[in-house]
Amino acid sequence: MSGTEWAARPDSRKHLLLTETADVFRDVVGEGVRHVAARVGEAVRPTTGPDPDELRAEIASIDLDRPLSDSAEALAELDDIYLRDAVYFHHPRYLAHLVPPVAIPALLGEAVLSALNSSLDTWDQSTGAMLIEQRLIRWITRRAGFGESSSGIFTSGGTQSNLQALMLARDTALARRAPTPGERWRVLPKLRVLASEQAHFSVVKSARTLGLGDSAVVRVSTDSRYRMRPDALEQAVFRCYAEGAVPIAVVATAGTTDFGAIDPLPALAEACRRHQLWLHVDAAYGGGLLVSARRERLAGIENADSVAVDFHKSYFQPVSCAALLVADEASLRHVAYYADYLNPEDSGVPNLVDKSLQTSRRADAVKLWLTLRVLGAEGIGALFDEAVDLAHATWRLLRADERFTVLAEPELSTVVFRWVGGYGMTDQECDAANQHAYSALFDSGAAMIAKTKIDRRVCLKFTLLNPNTTLQDIAAVLDLVAGHCANHLVLADAEPLLPEVS
Ligand SMILES: *Cc1c(COP(=O)(O)O)cnc(C)c1O
C-alpha cells in the first residue's frame, strides 16, 4: 500500500483510548456525563410516552455508513433518538418494573470498569477485578448462610443464574443416575423440575435450553398468598414417580415477580432433602432481604444448593449486576471446560471462566464493591426496606379505597390491584378499563405502572423501588388511573352511538 493510500484513511486512531488520548477520553465522557446529569435533573415525568413508529422511522433514517464529525455531534443525535424520550427510572412516578434508581458509586464503577475493560474470564486479563468479585461472592454467600465450601459467580442476571443453576442440577443428577452417555440420552426426557405457578418464565426457558423441554417444568400450586404449597409439592413429586418421570430439582422463588411472594423455604428444603432434589432459590428480587432488616424472611435459604441474586434489582445497581451462588463449589465443575489457548487445566492460576457460562465477562462486581464501600450493606438494605414499607402503606391505602380491589398483602415491594369503580360492570368491561388506564398513563407520560393477569383478569401493579416515591405520589397516580378507567367507560358507552351520528 502506498503512502497516499495510508493518508486517505480516516484518522480513527484519535477516537481510541490510547496513551496520547487519555485527555480526549476525559473530555468526551465528562461532557457526556454532564449532559446525562442535566437530563436526569430536569426530568419532570418518567417518560414522554414516545410513539414507537415515529421513533423507529427517525432511527431508520440515519445513514450508518456516513459518520458524523465527532462525539459531540453523535451525542446530540443520540439525545434526539434516545435520551429525550427515554424512560427515567429515577422519577418518583416510575412504578412499573423491577428497575431501581441506581447508586452513584455504581455509576463510578461503570466508568472505571468499561474504561479499563477488564474481562473476568482469565486471571491474566483481570487480576484485582477477579479477586474483588470473589471477595464479594464470599461476602454474599456468608449473608446467605452458606458454609466454607460455597462459591459462586457473577452473571448477567436472574435468567442466566437460573439457567446455570438448572444446568448444575441436571448434570449433578445425571452424574448420579446415568454415568454413561447412552444412559444420559435415555434419562434426559424423563427429568422434571418443580416450580410454583408463580415462578419466573426463565425457568421454562432454561428447561428448553437444557434439552429438557417446556413440559419438564411441573407447576406446583400456590396458597392464597401465591406461595408454593409444600403439600402440593409432595403430591407433584409422587405424581412424577408414578409416571416414571425423574424429579431432579425444585425452584423456590424468594420474591415472585407479581406479588413478591416468598415460597416457604424451610419446608421446601426439607422436602428436597428427603427426595434428594436440588433446591434452587430464585431470589433475583428478594435477594435484597439479605442486607435488610427483614433478613429473617429468607430463613431456610442457607439450605439451598444454589441461589440467584440480582443486584441490579434490590441493590440499586445498573444492569447488569447479578450472581449465582452455590453451596458446594465442586458442583461448578459441570460448567468447566479447559482450552489450551485460554485456561489450561494446569495453568496454576485461578480462572473464573471455569465457573461461568460466559467467556468474556464484564467486571460488574466493581459496581457493587464501590456501592458497599460507600453505603455499606445496611445502607443498601435500608433503601430496599423503605420500598417494602411503602408497599405496605400502599396496600392499606388501596384496601380503604372503594374504587379498587387489592390482591395479596405484599411481602416485598409490589402491590397488585384492579379498578372496579363502575356500577354493574362485567369482568370483561373491567378488564378493558384497566387495560386502557395502563396505556393511557404510559402515553401521557405522567406515570408508569405495570400490568399483569391474575386468574385471567387484567390487573395493575405498582413495583416500588424508589425511596423518593411518596404515598402522595401513589394517591395521585391512583386518581389518574381511576380517571382513565372512568373515561374509558364513557367512551365505550358512546361508541354504539357513533354510527348513527355519522
Ligand atoms: C427479574 C427476575 C428474573 C430474571 O432476571 P433478569 O436479571 O431479568 O435476567 C428471574 N426471576 C425472578 C423472580 C425475577 O424477578
Automatic annotation (TrEMBL):
Gene3D superfamilies, alphabetized? Aspartate Aminotransferase, domain 1, Type I PLP-dependent aspartate aminotransferase-like (Major domain)
Biological processes annotated in GO: amino acid metabolic process; carboxylic acid metabolic process
What's the domain of life for this entry?
Bacteria
Task: According to the UniProt record, list the residues that bear N6-(pyridoxal phosphate)lysine.
Answer: 313
Name the InterPro entries for this protein: Aromatic_deC (IPR010977), PyrdxlP-dep_de-COase (IPR002129), PyrdxlP-dep_Trfase (IPR015424), PyrdxlP-dep_Trfase_major (IPR015421), PyrdxlP-dep_Trfase_small (IPR015422)
Q: Name one GO molecular function term.
A: pyridoxal phosphate binding
Q: Which GO terms describe its cellular component?
A: cytoplasm
Instruction: State its cofactor.
Output: pyridoxal 5'-phosphate
Q: What UniProt keywords are attached to this protein's entry?
A: Decarboxylase, Lyase, Pyridoxal phosphate
Q: Which family does it belong to?
A: Belongs to the group II decarboxylase family.
- Name of this chain's protein: L-2,4-diaminobutyrate decarboxylase
